[in-house]
Write a structure and sequence with these properties.
The protein has 96 residues and is mainly α. The chain is built from three helices and no strands. It has one domain.
């Protein structure tokens, strides 16, 4: 990632928690896992050439990324909140 990348999430960590425990996310995960099974089948196909292998590896990586995305965003929001809290605390301690 670029060093100058800045997260600008609109949702809160609580909203992501709710999403992660929702039936919507359960359904999405189910579909993504079906895709991942299909990719695995493609990886195990002995008739695949190198191009197919690389394509399927990329697909598997993309699906795994999507499966982890809500938790990654939630964790990033929590880290940002913690960092902001620490800044405020340090600022208050400096004023004393």
């Amino acid at each position: 990632m670029k060093e100058d990348y800045e997260e600008n999430f609109v949702s809160s960590s609580n909203q992501f928690e709710e999403f992660l425990s929702s039936t919507v996310w359960t359904d999405i995960k189910g579909e993504l896992n079906i895709w991942l099974e299909g990719v695995r089948d493609g990886l195990e196909d002995t008739d695949s050439d190198e191009k197919d292998l690389f394509r399927n590896q990329g697909r598997a990586e993309a699906v795994r990324y999507l499966l982890s995305l809500p938790e990654t965003i939630r964790d990033t929001i929590l880290e940002d909140q913690h960092r902001e809290s620490q800044k405020e605390q340090n600022k208050e301690e400096g004023e004393i």
